[in-house]
Structures are given as structure tokens and as C-alpha cells.
Automatic annotation (TrEMBL):
Protein name: Arabinose 5-phosphate isomerase
Cross-referenced Gene3D superfamilies: CBS-domain, Glucose-6-phosphate isomerase like protein, domain 1
Residue ranges annotated for the SIS domain, each copy included: 46-189
NCBIfam families: kpsF
Keywords: CBS domain, Repeat
């Protein structure tokens, strides 16, 4: 195995804090130039065009602009808007077949003279798609051959050589994501609809998951009868991983709960007398409960509510019959 030769601490001069601060301030000034000079009428027309789209909104670009175009397309998709990224190279080798006359193709290019995009334009036009260029250099070739152009004012790149695309890509990203949020508002996207598009995220889970989606049921339930001796139920108490027993009658109606904490307190208070005590004598007959159709996040709030937090909630139906149990560990494991 070879070793990686890392530069010694003295290989480069120490970075000066003021130099770094000045770079951030310079970038802020460059971004302010963009905000102060952006043509809002152009931006409004562009946004309205996307809003009125009857097909798919495709984004394309090369290099860093391509990364931005791809990211913006993913943002729109997450908002429930039909969008996608079309690689200009792959488009010329078959992928352009996805374009239709109902679609919009947005081309991101700082210079507006990117050869790959210019080669794509006539092919996209032949498919009948509506073309929009988003560029930062006035009088560029791409703007002259597209149906619409949006100019993103660029003072200069932060790069000392004015070459590395670090400011131009920043304003592209700001522009695209801001337009995306404008579309989100215009389409009246609700929080529930947004969550439905993010089922694996915490926001989505908190708005989608119900107690019945995360509760234990049937054979997973730690149940016992009130006449059972405490010491006879130690295996049931510990084996189901809930830290409690659900005390039920013959018809599965909930009578109360008995926790491992109750076991410790009973043992301390009764000593050897615990061998004669039944679960019903020591159980909590007024436990917090919840229904299966309640939101899972509501169950978590109920567990954490005063006077003291609990680690589980019995799940009952309208007849007070036990149908499940939801635990704090289960909620956390589900990503809530």
C-alpha cells in the first residue's frame, strides 16, 4: 500500500483571516450587483412561461452550469412539477427523443456561446420545444437563436483571474431556486403535498405517518391479565422490547399498564412480598392512550407531555380494546 504524501505545514503560507473575510465581502458585493441589476420583467415572463407549461420543463447546461441546471430540475421535481435534466451530449445521441412540442428547454450558459448547447438548439427546435437561454454575457449566440433569453447580470467572477465560475454559478443557483419557489407559491402547493413528495424525510414522515403505520400489533404486544402474578410475567415484560405490560381483560379491553419502572418500585417497596402480588394490584389504571388514526408525530408529543414523559402509548379503538402499542424507540427508528 502506498502512502499519501501530504504537504508539510510550511508548504503554503498561512491563510490570513482578513483575506478570507475580504473574499466573502467581495462575493457578497458581486451577488448584490446581480440583485440590483436583474431585469424583473424578464424574470416574470420566464416564470410565467414555466407556470403555463403543458409539458415537461427540461434544463440543460455544460460543466458547472450543467450541475446547476440539474439541481434546479430536481428542485422542481420535488415540488411536484414535471421537470428533468437533458444532457446536451446524450441528447444528440438519442435522448432528445424525450422532447415534445409541449415541452420547454431551458439552457444555462454563462457565455451563451457553449458549442454543445448551440448544436442542440436546431435539434430541439425540430422537435417543436420552446427554448429559453439563461446567460450572463450580452449579445451572445445562444440568446439570438432561442425563443426567450434571461440575462443574469454578472459583475465578475470572484476568481482573481475572473475565470473560475464561482460567482456566475452562484447567481444561476439563486435565480433558479427563487423561480422554483415562485412557482411553488403560484401553484398553491400545500405542506401536505410537499410532504407527500418527501416520504423518506422527517418532514414527510411527520405529515404522512400515522400511529397504525409505526405501532406494534398482535403477537408483538406485551399483554397479560390483571390476575397474573408479577413474577410470572417477567419474560413477557422484557422479551417484547416495550418496557411495559398491557393489562387486559378476556375481551382485550385495556385495564392498565405495568412498566419496568413499576417493577423496580414494587420490588423496593414490597421486597419478598412481590412474589404474591398480581399485575392488577400494582398497574397504572389511567394510562395515556392514543388511536391508530392519530398522526405519529402526535403520539410523540403525547409521550413527551407533562407531568412526566413516557416511553410508550397503548393504541386502542373506540371500544377501549387494545389493538397495538407505539413506542418512543419505534418512532425514532421510523425517522420521526
Amino acid at each position: 500500500m502506498g502512502s499519501l504524501d501530504l504537504p508539510s505545514p510550511s508548504a503554503y503560507p498561512e491563510l490570513d483571516q482578513n483575506t478570507l473575510l475580504n473574499l466573502f465581502k467581495s462575493q457578497q458585493n458581486h451577488l448584490n450587483f446581480f440583485f440590483q441589476n436583474l431585469d424583473l420583467s424578464q424574470t416574470l415572463s420566464f416564470t410565467q412561461t414555466l407556470l403555463n407549461s403543458r409539458g415537461t420543463i427540461f434544463f440543460s447546461g455544460v460543466g458547472k452550469s450543467g450541475f446547476v441546471a440539474n439541481k434546479i430540475s430536481q428542485t422542481l421535481i420535488s415540488l411536484g412539477i414535471r421537470a428533468g435534466f437533458l444532457s446536451p451530449l446524450d441528447a444528440l445521441h438519442g435522448d432528445i427523443g424525450i422532447l415534445t412540442a409541449r415541452d420547454i428547454l431551458v439552457l444555462f450558459s454563462k457565455s451563451g456561446n457553449t458549442e454543445e448547447l448551440l448544436r442542440l438548439v436546431p435539434c430541439a427546435k425540430a422537435k417543436g420545444a420552446y427554448l429559453v437561454s439563461v446567460t450572463s454575457v450580452e449579445g451572445n449566440a445562444l440568446a439570438s437563436v432561442c425563443d426567450m433569453n434571461v440575462h443574469l447580470p454578472l459583475e465578475r467572477e470572484l476568481c482573481p483571474f475572473d475565470l473560475a465560475p464561482v460567482t456566475s454559478t452562484a447567481i444561476q443557483m439563486v435565480f433558479g431556486d427563487t423561480v422554483a419557489i415562485a412557482l411553488m407559491g403560484a401553484r398553491n402547493l400545500t405542506k401536505d403535498e410537499y410532504a407527500a413528495n418527501h416520504p423518506a424525510g422527517r418532514i414527510g414522515k411527520s405529515l404522512i405517518f400515522k400511529v397504525k403505520d409505526v405501532m406494534k400489533k398482535q403477537d408483538e404486544l406485551p399483554v397479560c391479565r390483571e390476575g397474573d402474578l408479577i413474577m410470572d410475567q417477567l419474560v413477557e415484560l422484557s422479551s417484547k422490547g416495550c418496557g411495559c405490560l398491557l393489562v387486559i381483560d378476556e375481551e382485550y379491553h385495556l385495564i392498565g399498564t405495568f412498566t419496568d419502572g413499576d417493577l423496580r418500585r414494587t420490588l423496593k417497596a414490597s421486597g419478598k412480598g412481590i412474589f404474591k402480588l398480581t399485575v392488577g394490584e400494582m398497574c397504572n389504571r389511567n394510562p395515556r392512550t392514543i388511536g391508530q388514526d392519530a398522526m405519529a408525530v402526535e403520539a410523540m408529543k403525547k409521550m413527551e407531555s407533562p407531568p412526566s414523559p413516557v416511553q410508550f402509548l397503548p393504541v386502542i379503538n373506540h371500544q377501549n380494546m387494545v389493538i397495538g402499542i407505539v413506542t418512543l424507540h419505534g418512532l425514532v427508528s421510523a425517522g420521526l
